Each structure stands twice: as structure tokens, then as C-alpha cells.
Amino acid sequence: MPNRADDTIVACATAPGRGAIAIVRLSGGDALAIARRVATSVPTMARSAALVAIHSPDRPDELIDHGLVTWFEGPHSYTGEDVVEFAVHGGALVSTLVVEACVTAGARPAIAGEYTERAVVNGKLDLVQAEAVADLIDARSRAAHRAAVRQLDGALSKRLTVMREALLHVDALLAYDIDFPEEDEAAPSRARVLAACDDAIGQVDRLLATLPAAALGRDGALVVLAGPPNAGKSALLNALVGEARVIVSEIPGTTRDAVEVLVDDSPFPLRLVDTAGLRESGDKLERLGIEVSERYVTQAHVVLACAETPESLERTVEVVAGMTAGCVLGVLTKVDILQPSLPRSSRRDSGGPRSTATSWGNGEREAGLVHVSAFTGEGLDLLRAAIRSVVTSRAAAPVDDTPIVTRARHEAALRRAGAELRDFRAAWAAGALPAPVAATHLRAAVTALEELIGAVDVEDVLERVFRSFCVGK
């Protein structure tokens, strides 16, 4: 679309549907003029609100709504442009009519993401922060919310900017040696350049190490309840969730399909999955459900191997352990019924998570045994603690001062930067390539970081040369 960036755009900024308030947002050079065509008056002072009557320019006598109008003068707005917001009554129709009135007055309907795109173009956000806006909106857990808020606040951007600055400094040292070899200043020592490169590689690796935590924060840890029919899996899931999400019946084979529930937990959310009972079955429909269960077990981070008796539990753990690379946690369900008949050694502490050496073996994927009752709630807190322990052993809980890499684009750029830095280090340490050739790897690493945050400026290195050295003596 020609001259798209010069257009004044309009859109409803709140979710569609029935609600108390809807926000219609204008942004662009003509925002104030357009607002004055559709409202009886617009505040002359920025950031002050006024109650106005809103109408369409081609039907001035037909009232659309009474609402509040606020003017945000650029560059002190979200997009960095003049922005006018109308706060009108919610619902599908009112906000649509206000948008139509603004289009009639000269605005263009905004396309997806255009407000945030303009914020980036106008220097209000960088690319990483812009992506954090979408992540914050899409967050389904506190872990995802925490990561998005930190990125929107600039935690990752600042870390990447510091890394870029350090690499530009090394590049400036090399540029000085390459471009001004006749100067009396000593060339940068090989050890000094290698140390700076090693520090940058370490920072890249630390950021990439947050990927498992980011995946768990975004998608949740997959915790699958598996076991024979009527082992209490559905009742246990309902108890862990805190509400009835799955039909519970004494009839074996009631659960025919996997039922997945996302539970917001700390430090990572949990995707609890109730599955069809694992057994040989001639019923076609039940067999399909069992195949789905087996696929979930294969992909699980944690499998809760559920059974009613110690003997059945031992068989269940053996079967499940052969199906998954995840951690298997034995769960003896219905302990309220079976407690009197359990051996003394099995019930001495009501089944807290114990050592990996259990009655069914000591494989690395077997985390221990927990006794629970979905009916009385006994052992549920211990089970939750055991699940958290297993999950955090797979991905360390986020550290407050470490930004998390949440997107594939971030990962790709960091891996590219890391690879270029390692190529540069190998060439520089061995002296295998002339400085101008080796420096191309360093500049490629800088470019990868620049693309990541959206800051590409080829003049930076030259500026550093003049700022760091007395070139024109």
C-alpha cells in the first residue's frame, strides 16, 4: 500500500464482544483532525479526557454514542505519533460504528500489528519488546507472563545491547589495526581479543540455556496420568485441578480419549493429561483411545504411573517406563481404602516422595513413590511437590536477573551469532586468517544481534574508532 506509513489508522483496541467499555484508537498525523470531524469537541490539552457526542461526518444529526475522548500528543504516545482514543460503550456494534465514522472522516483501518510496528519504527520499542507485547497478550501462565513483562521492560534488549557494544569495541580494535597499520599505537593483543570473544560466547550460551525454561513457561510441563482402567486417574486429575473436569465412574474404560487441562503452577505451568486405561482391548473405540494415551506417554515430561495396589503399580511402572523418556513417578491411588492392608514399610509416612530405589528398580527415570487419596486429599501436596521437583530438574527455574529467550527468531539469531563468534575465535587463536578476513565473522555476529533487536547501524564501528583512538595525530 503506497505511503502506508503516512496514513492515519483506526481500529478497536479492545476485544470484540459484550463488555462495559470499548476503546477505538486513531494514530497518525491527522488523528486530531479526524477526531474533530466525528466528535463534538476534542480536548486542546494532551492527556486530558472529555465527554463528547460521537457521530459520523456524513450523518451529523445521527448520534452514535456519548464517550470519552483523550488526545496523546506525539511523540509521547504508544506509537510515537499523535493518538486519539475514544472510550465508548462496549459491544459489537458501537465500536464498529465509531471505526466506520473515523474511516469516513479520512482514516484507514489498521492492519494486524500496525500500532506496535509504528512504535518500533518511531523508536518507542525495539523488535524484542514488540514481540513481548504479543507474548504478554498470549500468556496463559504466570511463568509466561513473567518472561513477557521482563522482555517488555527491556531486560533481554539491554543484555543484547551490552553484548553488541562489547563486540563492536573488539571490531573497532581490529578496524584500527587494519585501517591504520602505520600508527604508533600497539595492535590489540591476541589475548585481549580472545578474552572479549570468550565472554560474548559465554553470554550467548547462557541465554540459549534458558530455552527449556521458556518452552515450559509457554507450553507447560506435560504430566500424563497413565495406568490400568479404573485406577483412579480421572479422580486424581480432578483433585489436582480442584474441580470436576473428567467423568469419574467405577465402570472400567469410561475415559476413551485424552483430557488435557492446563494448571498454572510455580515455577512452571503443568499440562495435566488424563488418559484411557492401558490394557489389551478388542473394542475399536477404546483401542483408539489407548493409542492416544501411548502417544502422550511417549512425549511426557513426567508420567504419573497410577494403580490401586502395590502389585498393580509395579507392573504399571514397568510398562510405562519402557514407553517414555520422561520421568516416571509411581502413584498409589485410593490410599484411603487400601491403607489398612498396606505393609508397614509402605505406609509409614503416608507416601511422601522417596528415593529412586523403589520396589520396581532404580532406573534414572523412576522418581519415587507417592501415596494419595483423591477423596480425602491425602498426599496431594506431596504429589505436587514431587512433580515440581522433577520438572525443575529438567529445566532450572528462571533466575530473576536472567532474561529468557522465548522465540524461535531469538534462538536462530543467537545460534548464528554464537557460531560466527566460535569461527572467529578459532581463526584468531590459530592466526590462520588475516585480521580483515577473521573480522568478517565478528561482524556477522554483530549483525545477527542487530537483526535481533532491530538496531542496524554500519557507522557504529567507525564512531568507536574515532572515540577510542587518537587517529588524526
Please give a structural write-up:
The protein has 473 residues and is α/β, with parallel strands linked by helices. It has 3 domains: 4-124, Probable tRNA modification gtpase trme, domain 1 (Gyrase A, domain 2); 142-210 and 404-468, Up-down Bundle (Four Helix Bundle (Hemerythrin (Met), subunit A)), CATH 1.20.120; 216-394, Rossmann fold (3-Layer(aba) Sandwich), CATH 3.40.50.300. The chain has 17 helices and 12 strands. The protein has helices spanning 31-38, 92-104, 114-121, 127-138, 142-152, 155-179, 190-208, 211-219, 233-241, 284-299, 310-321, 335-338, 344-347, 380-394, 408-430, 435-453, 460-468; strands at residues 9-12, 21-27, 49-56, 59-72, 83-89, 108-109, 221-226, 259-263, 270-274, 302-307, 327-332, 366-371. Strands 3-4-5-2-1-6 form a 6-stranded mixed beta sheet. A 6-stranded mixed beta sheet has the order 8-9-7-10-11-12, sandwiched between helices. Helix 4 (127-138) packs antiparallel against helix 5 (142-152), helix 6 (155-179) crosses helix 17 (460-468) and helix 15 packs antiparallel against helix 16. The longest helix is centred in the middle third of the chain and has 25 residues, at 155-179. It is flat. The two termini are 52 Å apart. Residues 246-256, 341-365 and 457-473 have low confidence and may be disordered.
For the record, the count of structural domains works out to 3
* Biggest sheet details: 6 strands, mixed
Please write the CATH class name of the largest domain: Alpha Beta
As a percent range, the share of strand residues is 15-25%
Return residue spans where pLDDT drops below 50 for at least 5 consecutive residues: 246-256, 341-365, 457-473
Number of helices: 17
CATH architecture of the largest domain: 3-Layer(aba) Sandwich
Q: How many whole angstroms does the radius of gyration measure?
A: 30 Å
Shape: flat
Ends: how far apart? Answer: 52 Å
Strand order within the widest sheet?
Answer: 3-4-5-2-1-6
Q: Mean pLDDT across all residues, rounded?
A: 79
Number of strands: 12
At the fourth level of CATH, the homologous superfamily of the largest domain is: P-loop containing nucleotide triphosphate hydrolases
Structural class: alpha/beta
Q: Which fold name corresponds to the CATH topology of the largest domain?
A: Rossmann fold
- State the share of residues found in helices, binned by percent: 40-55%
Series of H and E elements: EEHEEEHEHHHHHHEHEEHEHEHHEHHHH
